[in-house]
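Our collaborator T.R. sent over the components below with a one-line note: 'Predict the complex.' Nothing else. No constraints on interfaces, no templates requested, no preferences about which chain binds where. So this is a plain run: every listed entity goes in together, and whatever single assembly comes back becomes the starting point for the next discussion.
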Amino acid sequence: MLYSKLFGKTKKNSKQYDSINATLLIKGGFIDQVMAGTYTYLTLGLRVINKIEQIIREEMDTIGQEILMPALTPIVNWQHTGRFETVDVLMKTTPANIFAKAKNDTEYVLSPTHEEVVTPLAQKFILSYKDFPFALYQIQNKFRNEPRVKSGLLRGREFRMKDLYSFHTSEEDFKKYYEKSKEVYMQVFNRLGIGKDTVITLASGGSFTDDYSHEFQTICETGEDTIFYDKKTNTYYNKEVAPNQAPEIKYQDEKILPKKDVLGKGIIGVEELAKFLKIPVEKTTKTLIYETDKKEVVVAAVRGGYDINENKLRKVVGCKALKLTSPEIVKKVTGAEIGYAGLLNLPKNIKVFIDESVGNRHNFETGANKTHYHSINVNFGRDLPKPKKFYDIKVAKEGDSNPKTKEKYQVYRASEVGNIFPLYTKFTEAFNYHFVDQDGKEKPIYMGCYGIGSSRIMGIIIEKHHDNHGIIWPESVAPFQVHLIGLDMKDKNISSKVHQVYQVLKEKNIEVLFDDREEVSAGEKFADADLIGISVRLVVSIRTKEKVEYKRRGENKTSLMELKEVISNVKSQISNLHRKT
Amino acid sequence: MLYSKLFGKTKKNSKQYDSINATLLIKGGFIDQVMAGTYTYLTLGLRVINKIEQIIREEMDTIGQEILMPALTPIVNWQHTGRFETVDVLMKTTPANIFAKAKNDTEYVLSPTHEEVVTPLAQKFILSYKDFPFALYQIQNKFRNEPRVKSGLLRGREFRMKDLYSFHTSEEDFKKYYEKSKEVYMQVFNRLGIGKDTVITLASGGSFTDDYSHEFQTICETGEDTIFYDKKTNTYYNKEVAPNQAPEIKYQDEKILPKKDVLGKGIIGVEELAKFLKIPVEKTTKTLIYETDKKEVVVAAVRGGYDINENKLRKVVGCKALKLTSPEIVKKVTGAEIGYAGLLNLPKNIKVFIDESVGNRHNFETGANKTHYHSINVNFGRDLPKPKKFYDIKVAKEGDSNPKTKEKYQVYRASEVGNIFPLYTKFTEAFNYHFVDQDGKEKPIYMGCYGIGSSRIMGIIIEKHHDNHGIIWPESVAPFQVHLIGLDMKDKNISSKVHQVYQVLKEKNIEVLFDDREEVSAGEKFADADLIGISVRLVVSIRTKEKVEYKRRGENKTSLMELKEVISNVKSQISNLHRKT
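Returned assembly:
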């Protein structure tokens, strides 16, 4: 393609966006922001996303069949699974004006995911044990009512995604497939050039199972997730599920002091409180009162400096959902206004869950359960009974260890590039979808879902692969295989030579972006090539004489080569990009 | 692909839908209806739509650059062009529930077309005369709030479409491109196997121009459009714009009779009235009172049996929009309740537009402009002055002629497969998008838009190409190139032989659907092959011995061939499908 004819050239005065990928993609002419969270893929960007999706497709074809479901889906399907009223990223469509309303006033869901479509679809076709297992996938635009969209392609309201759904007649068969999917996913990330930094991370399996789901996290300085690595077991955990033990506190008093209630009106946050009481934060205690889906009230406490992990708390409480309770109930339980809740003198009938980080401290602080008062120098065994059991109900942070292995976690920033999720029978039961087994009996169907955000990956690749000059695409997804620059183009001989090189490369089925502009300086052309980030840069100029200058993006070395040699180099690189079978 | 493993096999007891394409596509396992107007493309269907779109893409690449715009777009862009409040197929998105509303309450347009995105996009990048002309296209899902969705893939609420937009610095340059686009479109339809039945038809250019737009109409018995062909000028007109002259009336009275007012209370429709008055319908007159966008009231009349063509009326009146006026104004103008309006004794200041079909009649009927009364035996020159000019303001129908050429139209049913539309400066002016010319001055930008509904075409291909047994795909879009049937599969030798044939074909890069089912009868396999409609059917069985049975879908003849010969046949067919350069 001739760069002079390309729509969407590099933008000199493009601004800095909130992420590297947005800044470089917009400046490089790959995408255009239509509004916060929606983008147009320009010609260069579309070529990249197509290559990413083709790699995903080739790998998914080994474990599933491609279909294409609509984005507009009936509300009733979402009511069936209870998600219409609860999913907070769900959008629906409605007529835009009175004329549209007069014509058709029905509303539809604009799908953020497709369990509600694929499950009834499978049900229409496949009921006999003979046809299991099977898996269906699609690559398609998804819609999410995100409150804050940010980080360019990393979090959008409309984005590209591959979603795959598998169906099985037994849990064992499902699990076998689930393990296989991990291998296929890693193969995708390898081919996309992010495999060596991508790790499988345990994450929450959702409210209907104690099992983990699995995230594929690419370790990346600018990542928005935090993951915890236990070297002993070679296991990565997402922050939301990492089991953790707090480090011992630094300044342990040797002498047990008399308990005291201190007036501290309006002093509520642990940082502020520690300052006020002149004690380390780690001696404070955070006590919160929750209400479960069964309306049971429970008390949870963690050491100051930690947050309560509601996912962990939900599991130890044994409920499906919980939320912070109302100020009225806090008062009823503690006898105090909100902000002064603590562990002392709680009603006997209330269940109390105390994190392990709260124990092993002398002379600690806890809310006095008296409005405006905080108790200090509190000690288990003297001021309140030592609980029979301490729990792990806090969010992990740097410095924590795995309570089982005692190994101190290595902590990384990372970006999620895919996830796989055991759904078990949640959706098949919701649609009453069973199979008929050999014995003629109806039995439950096990299901998994498997996502990869292809546009998100395009952003993450850039977060990983760039330098001060621009993008450094992995060869497998670069918009073209070669960036050919003609210099001294006003010289007819040179111009004719470089056009000839362009023709030869095209005839060899090499994808070439040819910067054929006459009026642009060499410096500008080199800067554009660095920004666009195609793996191989070729230059033809008066200086290169009968040869061609060859340089790889990200390396400084240039070499003069015969065109033949260039072609053979590029061809051998291309052949490495094909699917390994 | 092994048919035994395919998700979405043929359905024996599938019902008849409202169209041939829906019936055959659903029965054949190509698509599944999610709800009225939205479909899932199953594996077979997705392969077809991909092939259709790849052909479109290859041809569009010769005149434009592919990009991909989002479906979610900002409302403000649509307010800019005045289409947010007026387009009756426009949908917007809104949060689906209270949790979603709490997170982000913004609404967005779900785009049915992309002028409101592509125009500001072009404006961001291209302002200098040097970069014109250029054209951008995309292939993408579109959303329309259709009141009645029907005819399978022909009219959906979510559908696949290619839309291209071109930008020019002069009207001449735009027109040159517009003509070129017609050739490219015809090339697309030729490659899709519907070229020889597809004609370019004049259609309305919209309210902002007197120019025509152009529709590509595929002549087809089940088509929902009517087109009018004037053989003399070799021109096709869409019903909405066909200039037309009514045939002379059959029973012309020779004797002029005395005018009479007849009481006919509540008799309003022309059919009912003709019966009541015992006169042919063609002697009645339909008189309607309109109001223009400038609030001017005008009277329009056509011969009974015709409808007023508001598009034509708007043009002769010289207004931008018009609608039927209120009963109050009808009464003010005619002195009568609605239903009795006629041409007699109208106020002098009201403009009256009489269609030519009203003239050349003796003793005709018209409303008496007196409630409950109809005047009969009315004659121009005696009861009312003969108008200086008769107009053409009626919808064409079978039997009409072209008033200019006097040629009687040939009338066809047809289905629209594409349209191209001169937009001139309508959208560029709305966004204040101008270019800077060589002389440094800002000048207007001319624009065209060019659509092809790819999913719609998939439906129309079937409406054209099927028989009682199923679909007959053109080779270029068939889901596979070969449908291989193994019979006597329980015989190990045969089974091994047919699997070997399958392997050889695949190695030769031939796309094969292999019906490898053991438990299914020969009859059922043949019926499925006919339903699915792949161009080449191969059979391997005990009877075929060392050869392979070859049959083309839609032909009865079968031949026994060497596999080598089959491969060379198929290969030569495939090579004919490539783009002609």
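Summary for T.R.: The longest helix of chain B spans residues 171-191.
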